[in-house]
Design a protein that fits this description.
alpha+beta; 7-stranded mixed β-sheet; 9 helices
């Protein structure tokens, strides 16, 4: 896919493609058929070879306001499918074993199934749509096709089970840093422990699951759902959520964004997140905690210096969020001055998500 993209209007012979890829001309034909099955229009001309013409509607990525989902031609012309993602990836291991689903129950469920079968470290499930998307605490994640980014990364880390929860924070930092590069005009922040915010509204959620035994961790799955297109206004949570496309269009409408760059397609966003993840994951594993990333995380922490309400089971209390500990806990100062490290529980932040 990358070779054809780079060639532009130029035809590439089967022999030339075979040499580049180290395969036979029959192998080239097989890969061309695979690309066509994913929705890519490829011209074949006898004596000249192949060239990429366009992407059909079924492979389009919605990457900006006004784009339409598969079934109607979008405006971006950016492809989204296994070949397009693989063409963008520049990682060493994350996503190098990849499976793309046009629709599935949930990418976390697919990753669990493959993890139980022995899938390797870095195995990645990506879906255009999810029929049973998962959020934290058993909530559902609305996952229409043709709009957003849904993926789950399977890990086999050499960590203690108690360290696994910090991988949620590592992914949040990775996503935030990638977005800052891809959409530099955005004001992104992290809501501890698992949300990415844009202009104070939820853009992305992260769900981390672990399977362990008496010997330790078998595998960890880190799932991500990121709103790339516009959010569905009919959903009850829509007022608290935002998508990259809707946010950019609102800035254009308000005149606040004089020169807006083109939003990257889902393939590029995914590749950027995985590249960011490899760097942050290596840094985390070198120390086994958030010490080396604590400052970077806290500079993006929406909770910091805000009043928060902690809900953990029957107990509910309020305090001032100070930051995070090296173990990824949220440090909260109670009204009596005691500082408590919050490991788990639902955290509501004053001024965000309608909590006043």
């Amino acid at each position: 896919m990358r070779i054809l993209q780079e060639a532009g209007e130029e035809f590439l012979s089967g022999e030339a493609l075979g040499k580049r890829l180290g395969i036979s001309r029959m192998g080239v034909c097989k890969r061309i058929r695979h690309l066509e099955a994913e929705g890519y229009a490829i011209e074949r001309r006898k004596g000249r070879g192949y060239r990429l013409l366009e992407v059909s509607a079924g492979a389009l990525a919605v990457s900006g306001a006004g784009n339409k989902p598969p079934g109607g031609a979008g405006e971006s012309g950016q492809a989204y499918g296994q070949a397009a993602i693989e063409a963008e990836l520049q990682t060493e291991w994350a996503g190098r074993h990849l499976r793309f689903y046009a629709s599935t129950d949930s990418t976390n469920a697919r990753a669990r199934a493959e993890g139980d079968k022995g899938a390797p470290h870095g195995w990645l499930a990506v879906a255009d749509a999810q029929e049973a998307g998962q959020g934290r605490r058993g909530r559902s994640w609305h996952s229409p096709g043709g709009k957003h980014l849904y993926f789950s990364l399977l890990l086999r880390p050499e960590l203690d089970p108690g360290q696994a929860s910090m991988l949620t924070l590592v992914m949040a930092l990775s996503v935030c840093k990638a977005l800052e590069v891809c959409v530099p005009e955005g004001d992104f922040a992290i809501k501890w422990p698992n949300d990415i915010l844009l202009s104070g509204r939820k853009l992305c959620g992260i769900l981390t699951e672990m399977r362990s035994n008496l010997d330790g961790i078998e595998y960890v799955i880190v799932g991500v759902g990121l709103n790339v297109g516009e959010v569905d206004a009919s959903q009850p949570w829509a007022e608290h959520a935002i998508g990259l496309a809707g946010w950019q269009e609102s800035l254009r409408t308000d005149g606040a964004l004089r020169k807006a760059g083109t939003l990257p397609g889902r393939s590029r966003l995914l590749a950027a997140i995985l590249e960011s993840w490899e760097r942050e994951y290596a840094l985390f594993c070198s120390g086994g905690d958030m010490a080396a990333q604590r400052e970077a995380y806290e500079t993006r922490l929406a909770n910091k210096h805000r009043q928060v309400r902690i809900e953990a089971g029957p107990e509910s209390w309020q305090g001032l969020a100070l930051g995070i500990s090296n173990a990824g806990e949220l440090l909260v100062e109670r009204e009596d001055g005691r500082v408590e490290a919050v490991y788990a529980g639902e955290v509501s932040v004053r001024g965000l998500y309608g909590y006043v």
